[in-house]
Design brief:
The protein has about 400 residues and is α+β, with helices and mostly antiparallel strands. About 40% of the residues lie in helices and about 25% in strands.
């Protein structure tokens, strides 16, 4: 469909494989692996994100008059709200009790990944004015696709702040959430980081790490190139064990991990614990340009503090060693605060087609936003483990 000024064409594709990886990645860039063609295609090709799983690809692309792809966005027609981490179950329930039909809906996201980053992917070689124009085209295009498909709503989750502000200007409802991230202040060693903490917090971390060390496990970082299928088999069992313990859903299929290892091995950082030659636990991270993103953790054995060691302390050590600016350890988890991870806002945008329902949701997100903003301030003031300067 024309985008409105007849100079560009906006279209929808039903599989990311319909678009060449180099064209997609020219827009996605290399900073955030979760919007790369490799990551998204691994989800689709493994059957983790497809129609059967309730994630029906409807990716949007914007082409210049000469056919060159200038922008794109990962979009899915969703028949449920699983695997999103920005919860709208209450909205769905309220709308359907009022006689509406909430599903299907449109979702712009990196599936199963509560990872902040760009969602409106623009060719970085374009000038700033053109990039901003293309973001507006994508935002308008998402609402137009929602109108054409007659879905209840469209949601852009874990977008960046720039997209969030622009979406608000164009009439999207603005929602914020909260995560806990660790920031690297040019530390040279883990002890440098510990030195910035209050004494009792520093002692607590040392005690936890000492208890893990006394287990005699071999804990090491393994790159994607080193991940054998046996290691992936072991990790998948860890993943299943974690979802079973938390009464969650096993969203990710076994093939997804193998495909990920083959397609973006340089981005994979697996922190795996071994008892002799036997893997007993592991934390899967993906590495971006300046960030280590923690994604999945699991273990078949119960060892006190092993989760904290693999997911948080080893991630910090890796970030320091490799000069990464931060570690984003995933959704939720106030227990991360005492381990050096502080609260930061996350952003999402929401378009509701029904005007009456939109008014109700708008009231909710305004109240929620004020509460979350205050919570972030209060948590850092009251619970930050860092020494006051």
């Amino acid at each position: 469909m024309p985008d409105g000024d007849n100079s560009r064409v906006l279209s929808v594709i039903s599989s990311i494989s319909d678009m060449a990886s180099e064209k997609w990645d020219a827009c996605a860039g290399t900073d955030n692996p979760f919007v790369s063609h490799a990551f998204l295609s691994a989800l689709e090709d493994s059957g983790s994100a497809n129609e059967e799983m309730g994630w029906i690809p409807r990716h949007i692309i914007v082409e210049a008059p000469d056919g060159r792809v200038e922008a794109c966005a990962p979009i899915y027609l969703k028949t449920h709200s699983y695997g999103e981490y920005v919860f709208d179950w209450g909205w769905a329930d309220a709308y359907e009790r009022a006689g509406g039909r909430y599903y299907p809906k449109l979702q712009c996201a990196a599936p199963f990944s509560p990872v902040p980053g760009p969602r409106l992917l623009i060719d970085c070689n374009l000038d700033a004015v053109s990039q901003d124009e293309l973001r507006r085209i994508l935002l308008s295009g998402i609402t137009r696709v929602a109108e054409q498909l007659k879905v209840s709503s469209a949601h852009i989750t874990f977008c960046n702040e720039q997209e969030w502000k622009l979406g608000g200007d164009l009439g999207y409802l603005q929602r914020i959430g909260q995560q806990f991230h660790w920031h690297n202040h040019e530390y040279q060693t883990f002890d440098d980081f510990l030195g910035t903490l209050m004494s009792r917090k520093r002692k607590a971390i040392k005690k936890e790490r000492r208890q893990v060390a006394e287990l005699g496990l071999d804990i090491r970082a393994i790159s994607g190139h080193e991940m054998s299928e046996d290691y992936w088999d072991a990790f998948y069992q860890f993943y299943l064990a974690t979802t079973d313990k938390k009464w969650g859903q096993n969203y990710l299929q076994r093939d997804f991990f193998s495909l990920l290892g083959k397609r973006i091995p340089d981005a994979i950082v697996m922190i795996m614990a071994f008892d002799g030659d036997k893997p007993v636990g592991g934390a899967l991270n993906l590495k971006g340009a300046d960030c280590l993103y923690g994604r999945n953790w699991g273990s078949l054995e119960t060892h006190k503090f092993l989760h904290f060691e693999c997911c948080y302390y080893q991630a910090i050590e890796y970030a320091i060693e490799h000069g990464l600016a931060r570690v984003e350890a995933g959704a939720q988890g106030s227990h991360k605060i005492q381990r050096g991870y502080l609260p930061v806002p996350t952003y999402s945008l929401h378009y509701i087609r029904d005007p009456g329902f939109e008014n109700a949701v708008e009231d909710f997100v305004k109240q929620e936003r004020a509460q979350v903003e205050q919570d972030i301030i209060d948590i850092e003031l009251a619970y930050s483990p860092y020494r006051k300067s």
